[in-house]
Amino acid sequence: MIVPIQTFTFAKDDPFVLESGLTLSPVNLSYETWGTLNAEKNNGILICHALTGSAHAAGYHAEDDQTAGWWDDCIGPGKAFDTDKFFVICSNVVGGCYGSSGPTEINPETGKAYGLNFPVITIGDMVRAQVELINYLGIDKLVCVAGGSMGGMQVLEWAAHHAERVHAAIPIATTTHHSPMEIAFGEVGRQAIYADPRWNNGDYHESGESPDAGLAVARMVGHITYLSEESMHQKFGRRLHNLEKYGYEFETEFEVESYLRYNGSKFTSRFDANSYLYITKAMDYFDLTQPSGTLAAAFTQSTNLRYLVVSFTSDWLYPSYHSKELVRALTVVGADVTYLDIESKWGHDAFLLEVDTMTGLLQSFLGRLEKEILAGTK
Amino acid sequence: MILRPDLLTIAEFIPENARILDLGCDDGELLAYLIEHKQARGSGIELSEEGVLACVRRGLSVRQGNIEEGLADYPDASLDIVILSQTLPFLNNPSFVINEMLRVGTRAIVSVPNWGYWRCRLEFLMTGRVPQFPDFEQKWDGEKRWQLFTLSDFEDLTQWIGVEIDNRVYLEGNQKIDRGARWRARTAVYALTKSS
Lengths: 378, 196
Description:
The structure holds two protein chains of two kinds. Chain A contains eleven helices and twelve strands. Chain A has helices at residues 123-136, 150-161, 180-194, 212-226, 229-235, 255-268, 273-285, 295-298, 320-332, 350-353, 355-374; strands spanning 6-10, 16-17, 23-24, 27-34, 44-48, 75-76, 81-82, 87-91, 142-148, 166-172, 306-312, 336-342. In chain A, β2 and β3 (23-24) form a beta hairpin. The longest helix of chain A is centred in the C-terminal third of the chain and has 20 residues, at 355-374. The two termini of chain A are 33 Å apart. Chain B has an eight-stranded mixed beta sheet, sandwiched between helices. Chain B has one domain: 3-Layer(aba) Sandwich (Rossmann fold). In chain B, β2, α3 (49-57) and β3 form a beta-alpha-beta unit. Chain B is α/β, with parallel strands linked by helices. Chains A and B meet through α9, β12 and α11 of A and α3 and β3 of B.
């Protein structure tokens, strides 16, 4: 399945006003689509990506492309999000570095990359930009919005603030607000980038020397939070990497060190350090309990949606109790909610790995939505 | 769809268009039946992953979790009927759950097995072994724990905790029993309300 990258531009004349009060003009969103939008335009599904994801959720960009999109296991003909039935859309978030407006983009006022002159963005801003894209595609109401991790935050933002535009919300392995622990991990990642002299206060896009060392450490910290103690035992144990015995030196010796170094360094070739700052900051700001102080208040106008909330037993980054708090709030307001805490040892990463359970669950849930929407019962 | 006799009796107790919650809804058989035949608006709470997945396959809304925690999330008087079928023996705190059911719902429908059933009494007398479930196969494997009680025990309990029995049906298979139910019934279905 070869899929082209498309770009949608808005706010060319009227600037896009961000939650911070700052503005952005114009705004570019790169996006990809799979399947066909039907004549009634009522079979659209929006997929939201996680921190380091892109619009490339499924398929390949070229015939000789080695790796498929990040959720290819679940998007395609006959898969959980069945592209024979649904028109699936995924766009890169504002602030990202995969074609949407972000710190790597050229600032039309200066002719140089924005760097830290790019305005700080929020999950709410990312979603309002997606609303513009959905308007442009002519879709009045989406079948559902689905996503894991930061994608799940966007899903909840859609449900809480754009309820009339979606039939259902599928937040997976996510939270309604970043906890102090999650903010702390975000900050460690950012400090690693600041500490890299090549970061140069965010002004490195012209120099050709990017803060790869800092970004790699940020990625390593992130990666640890996506695993679980059990999965690390299983994947690495205390095994040594290409060694028979300890070398009593500070080279990479353990398998787990080698894995983190490899993934840290691989990441720097595909992600921008400033984007990492902007997006982790957006996640830290995310808090649906504000301004009212209660989570239930965020969903009082959103009780007509169907919710499918999914968490994973070994996820310690967004532990199951975060999802249970969400389920509780949705129950309090009388919303229709289905919740499953999937037994898994893969930690936060489970949302991409527990494909069989997720496929069964998503297909059943989407089958029901399809019936309800076609029957016009909603 | 053919329902187990006690589930059919529960269904008879449910008016049309009721807002219902089925506690320990298993694979959602009863819930699906009530939505289809009684136009109920309902959801369930189920502990097992297989149960939840089976319910979602039927197009039902179900939350995974234990009954006590799940019920706690519901506001007072937010539902018409809360159902607990054949699950009472497995609960750690049955009276707490019954009170919670009547906090959340106007009515509680509870179906229970009867260890006072004559075969159970005979089995105990003749073999010296604690009888297994009177109404379905469930052998004690040392993994699950359950409380044995008779219809008399259950009815006493409702008095102690100040709950009124609004309606009741005693069953032996799909036969309704009128006389000698405490000996002759394998199961019973009760409709409970708060004492006024």
